[in-house]
Structure formats: C-alpha cells, structure tokens
C-alpha cells in the first residue's frame, strides 16, 4: 500500500539515535522551531522560549511572562509534497511557583491510495498524527531548574482492519518527559529524557513497538558578548533509550532457542534452557533506560545471521560450516561433514577461490552462506553505542536583540544524515520571525527543508 511505503520511509529518515527503526511514534522526534532547526537542532541547554516544553521542560523554570510560538513546515519535501508538520506552543509564568507550558503537534501525511489484498485500487483515505503536551518547570535555586511534561498522542495510519491482523491502524498512547537545566555565567548544561512510556501498537498488540524514549544532553557556551554583539555555541547528543536484541545465542550452546520460557524442551522454542529469550525481542521501557547502553555490546552472545533456508525454516544453528579447498582431493572429507549436510554450493560461492566449497563442520565458525557467526558476540564493542548517538552542533550570532544569524550541523551515522543547517531571524518588540533551512545532497529526503516560525510575547 502507498501509505505503508510512506510511513516506512518516514520511519527510516526521522532523526534518532536510533536506531529509529526500533521504536514507534517516531513523529514525536521531529524537532520543531525554525531557530532550533537552523542551529542543527541543538537546543537542550538553550531553551529560552516556548519551545522549551518540547526540548527541555526545565527551561520553563527560568522564563517569565507569557509567550506563544507557531511553526509550519513542508516536511521531507523530496519524499512527498503533501507532508505538513504544524507546531503550536505556549508558556505562562505563575509568580512564586514556576512556569506552565505546552505544545500541540500535528503531522498531516496527506492522501493515500487504498488497495485491496490483490493490489487493486478501491479508494482514498487520509492519515495523520497528533500530540498534545502539558509541561511545568520551576527553579531549584538561582542556577538550576527541573521540569516535567505529560503527553497524549494519536496516530491514524489506516482506519480499517488489515486482512490477517487484529485491530486497525490507529493508536492512542501516552508518555512523559523529564528535564534538568543548570546555568553558570557562561556555560549552560541541560539534559532531558523524552517520551517515557509503554509500548505502542498500530495494528496488533503482538507487534507493539517501544515508545521513542530519547535522552538529549548538551551544552551552551557564551563565547562573546558586549553591548551590541553576542555569539553562542551549542552542542547536543541524542541517544534512543530503546534496547533491542537480534536473534542470538545467549548461553553459548551453538543453537537458538529450543526451550519454553519455563525450561521445557520444545523444538522451535524462543528460549534457552535458562529461560532467556534468544529470538529477537525488545526490552520494556523501564528496563531499557539501563539496557539501551548495553544491548549492542555487552548483553547477548553470537549473532544468528543465517536468514532462511530453501525449506523456509529458520536456520537456528550458530556456525557449523567452513570453507575447504579442492574438496574432491581432501582426505578427511568424512570428518568435515559432521552435521549430516552435504556441500551447499547452491547457496554461496567464493569468487576469489572458484574451486572452494562451503561444507558442514561441527567446529565451523561460518553459516551456510559463508558469513561468520561463531565469535561475533566477542567482536561487539562499546563503541557501537556511540555510533548510534546523533550529534548536533549549532551557533548563533546576535546583533543587538533584534537580528540573528544561525548555523549548525546534524551528524547521524546510523541514519546516514549528515547535513548542514542555517537560518536567520528578526525580533522586533514582542514579535519574532525566524527562518531555518536544512541543506544536504540533492535527492536526500531531508534536503531543502524550510522552516518558518513566529514567536509572540503576550
């Protein structure tokens, strides 16, 4: 279906640390505001306006008065011309208590073509997503503040059930955010954990995905400031606090599963003898706050990279094959065929060694496709966690309090998003007009995205 293609594309392209494909409701990760967009989305330690309710609710604690903010953007213009993202925010100080705030997000996914199970067009439908958030921030002392947000969000992909699936393509869920902000004379430090909540199911509860829980941590530096000029630098790090595990051999016995969760032997079972699940799965959100720092290197064992056999049955054995040269002249061919399998040259070839063949071997480290499996658990390193982090860099130059130039860069290795950003703004009296632009290579879905924002101090 067209809607499925479009949703899948958005899921792969929105900034995360994560592996964004590991979570649901990824529209919550779209960073709002033309100003933040122009500074590479680095904002967690700045939060000096109504956008604080999104980036770090603790920033509300330092804000006084009232303010409204509006933003409009044609999201991912290279992917589609009918994806529109709208954002509205508001903050209101209560003297002696703190500042309340909140925002509304609406993502219009446009018109989709409805098809039946045979691919025949039977009509059109529209998809959208929205979220409503309420926030509160208050000072702990003159240099620090804390904040909290609660949100409800709704996703409407498709309002009819899918054949073979329970439920519809609609979900309504909730989550909350926590934030902290510390300020010194020239340096700010901010941290927030957003979208903490239960799993999200679009179609079937058995296919639920974790909420896009994300930790954003960063710094703001006041480089230079005088009566008319001001230069500020920003740096953020974003990491998805979602823990997911590929199919792997946790107990180092050379096979995947084979038992029920209570230790009973069961062919095709998902668990090992110790009750540990060895098929692919994801941790609950409360556990993932810790295990998301361990799942890519410390937890688990050798990876099962076997895929599917010609019989369409899962290849649950770790390793078990090896390459041999000139098999017709090998004296110990009987010992090599240790698992009852014959040569599997139908599946894999070795161009640099045409006469080589891959055969079964009890001590082999490869699977039947020649991919190494035994030992892959030991090869996983802590550095993999850092590769999943999204790095945001930004700078602002102000001339008086009326004119601003901005620049930044987004570096997301896993998401393959490495794009510069820039923009400008004019602030006169109680009004602020800002423009942001995400550049990038021609054809990249995030390239040529323009943001427009309006801030009004009431």
Task: Tell me what the structure shows.
This protein is mostly beta strands and 458 residues long. It folds into three domains: 300 residues, monomeric porin ompg (Porin), CATH 2.40.160.40; 75 residues, no CATH class; 50 residues, no CATH class. The protein has seven helices and 20 strands. The strands form four sheets. The protein has a 14-stranded antiparallel barrel with strand order 1-2-3-4-5-6-7-8-9-16-17-18-19-20. The chain has a two-stranded antiparallel ribbon with strand order 10-12. Strand 4 and strand 5 form a beta hairpin. It is elongated, with a radius of gyration of 26 Å. The two termini are 46 Å apart. The relative contact order is 0.16.
Overview in brief:
The protein is mainly β.
CATH topology (level 3) name of the largest domain? Porin
Intertermini distance: 46 Å
Radius of gyration from CA coordinates: 26 Å
Mean pLDDT: 84
C-alpha geometry:
elongated
Q: How many distinct folded domains?
A: 3
Number of helices: 7
């Amino acid at each position: 279906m067209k809607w499925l293609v479009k949703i899948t594309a958005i899921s792969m392209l929105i900034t995360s640390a994560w592996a964004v494909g590991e979570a649901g409701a990824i529209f919550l990760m779209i960073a709002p505001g033309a100003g933040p967009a122009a500074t590479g989305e680095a904002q967690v330690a700045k939060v000096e306006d109504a956008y604080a309710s999104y980036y770090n609710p603790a920033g509300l604690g330092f804000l006084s008065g009232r303010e409204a903010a509006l933003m409009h953007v044609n999201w991912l213009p290279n992917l589609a011309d009918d994806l529109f993202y709208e954002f509205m925010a508001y903050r209101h100080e209560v003297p002696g208590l703190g500042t309340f705030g909140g925002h509304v997000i609406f993502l219009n996914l446009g018109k989709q073509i409805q098809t039946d199970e045979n691919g025949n067009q039977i009509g059109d439908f529209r998809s959208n997503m929205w979220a409503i958030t309420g926030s509160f921030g208050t000072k702990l002392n003159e240099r620090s503040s804390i904040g909290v947000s609660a949100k409800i969000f709704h996703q409407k992909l498709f309002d009819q059930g899918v054949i073979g699936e329970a439920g519809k393509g609609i979900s309504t869920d909730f989550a909350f955010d926590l934030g902290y902000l510390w300020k010194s004379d020239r340096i700010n430090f901010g941290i927030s954990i957003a979208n903490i909540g239960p799993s999200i199911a679009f179609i079937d509860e058995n296919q639920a995905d974790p909420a896009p829980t994300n930790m954003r941590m960063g710094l703001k530096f006041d480089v230079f400031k005088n009566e008319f000029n001001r230069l500020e630098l920003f740096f953020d790090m974003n990491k998805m606090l979602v823990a997911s595990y590929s199919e792997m051999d946790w107990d180092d016995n050379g096979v995947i599963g084979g038992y029920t969760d209570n230790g009973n032997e069961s062919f095709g079972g998902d668990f090992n003898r110790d009750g540990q699940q060895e098929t692919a799965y994801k941790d609950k959100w409360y556990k993932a706050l810790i295990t998301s720092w361990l799942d890519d290197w410390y937890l688990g064992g050798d990876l099962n990279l076997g895929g599917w056999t010609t019989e369409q049955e899962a290849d649950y054995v770790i390793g078990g094959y090896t390459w041999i040269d000139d098999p017709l002249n090998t004296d110990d061919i009987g010992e090599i065929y240790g698992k009852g399998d014959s040569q599997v040259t139908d599946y894999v070839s070795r161009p640099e060694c045409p006469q080589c063949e891959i055969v079964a071997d009890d001590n082999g480290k490869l699977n039947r496709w020649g991919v190494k499996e035994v030992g892959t658990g030991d090869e996983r390193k802590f550095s993999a966690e850092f590769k999943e982090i999204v790095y945001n860099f930004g700078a602002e130059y102000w001339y008086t309090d009326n004119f601003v130039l901005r620049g930044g860069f987004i570096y997301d290795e896993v998401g393959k998003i490495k794009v510069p950003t820039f923009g400008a703004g004019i602030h006169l009296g109680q009004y602020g007009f800002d423009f942001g632009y995400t550049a990038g290579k021609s054809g990249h879905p995030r390239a040529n995205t323009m943001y427009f924002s309006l801030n009004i101090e009431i």
